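The protein record passed on for reference:
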Amino acid sequence: MIVSLIDMKSGETGIVVRLEGGSGFMDRVQSMGVRVGKEIKKTGAHFWRGPQTILVDNFKIAIGHGMASKIFVEVKR
């Protein structure tokens, strides 16, 4: 099932399948290690449109709600 990063539950893992944004967005998320084909794990989220924390290559990263809504992941269930 493909969902945006904000719709993933904490503890779920998946493969990034699509990034929807302009060149600035793409440069920023790819510099953090979030690329199409990369496995990520959502480790937490703050309520009410807060940042989403993910684990990429053993690095914990916080991504804002707006950016997280543009990252689509195929969740392993």
